[in-house]
Amino acid sequence: MLSEVLNAVLIALLLADLATWVYALYCLGRSVSLIKSSRALNVYEDLREGVTAVVPVRNSANTLRHLLKALLSQERVRLDEVVVVDDGSTDGTPEVVLDFMNMYPGVVKYERVERVPEGWTPKVYACYRGYLRSSGGLLLFIDADVALKGSCLRPLLGRAAALGGIASYAPRFSCRTLSCKVAEAVLTTVSHAFTGFDKVLNPSSRLAWFYGCCWAVP
């Protein structure tokens, strides 16, 4: 009798597991299909407010130059200012910023953090200092190792302005090692399967995605 009960329980668990993965595959397909849908890429043309980009950095000389070039050459977006907040870099980061300050006087600005107050984490405090230095109505917070293409910031800024709230991109990660590629594939698959765009873009759902590497807020 006990063995029959255990067999029944195991069968029920296997069926539940199978149903879970069937549902996950269904949701995965729906989520991936929405990546380039009109709902995911709504472009709002009216950007009346000024835009300030805040870039928190630490020892980012190798990537910062590429980011600043991409920021300042964005199509259909004019940045009023780019505030680079340096959290104690010891490499050539300040020199990179100085080069761009000379090329874009009054637009590129430099803020150095000498001490992080107790209770703050370095990046969060750097973002806060950038916010205090900003004058634009729309704020873009972006990491120094983010690679931008074309006019990709326009939809992000437009959506944040239209919604009156935070909007962030789900980034495409660049992995060079096998372990990174495997981990990224697994995490992305699970994310789309159980918390994908089919839920994030559903007005009746309270679920939201947020990535801290590139986000905007009015």
Quick recap:
The chain has 218 residues and is α/β, with parallel strands linked by helices.
Structure description:
- By secondary structure, the chain is of the alpha/beta class.
- The protein has two domains: 2-41 and 174-208, no CATH class; 51-168, Spore Coat Polysaccharide Biosynthesis Protein SpsA, Chain A (Alpha-Beta Complex).
- The protein contains seven helices and six strands; from the N terminus they run αβαβαβαβαβααβ.
- It has helices spanning 2-33, 61-72, 93-103, 122-133, 153-163, 178-195, 197-200, and strands spanning 51-57, 81-86, 108-112, 138-142, 167-168, 214-217.
- α2 (61-72) packs parallel to α3.
Helix-strand topology string: HEHEHEHEHEHHE
Main sheet: strands, sense, barrel: 6 strands, mixed
- Uncertain spans: none
Q: What share of residues are in beta strands? A: 5-15%
How many domains make up the 3D coordinates? 2
CATH top level assignment of the largest domain: Alpha Beta
The span between the termini is 65 Å
Query: What would you call the shape?
Result: elongated
Name the structural class.
Answer: alpha/beta
Given the structure, what is the number of helices?
Answer: 7
* Beta strand count: 6
Strand order in the largest sheet: 3-2-1-4-6-5
CATH topology of the largest domain: Spore Coat Polysaccharide Biosynthesis Protein SpsA, Chain A
Oligomer: single chain
CATH architecture of the largest domain: Alpha-Beta Complex
CATH level-four homologous superfamily name of the largest domain: Spore Coat Polysaccharide Biosynthesis Protein SpsA, Chain A
| Average pLDDT level | 82
Rg result: 22 Å
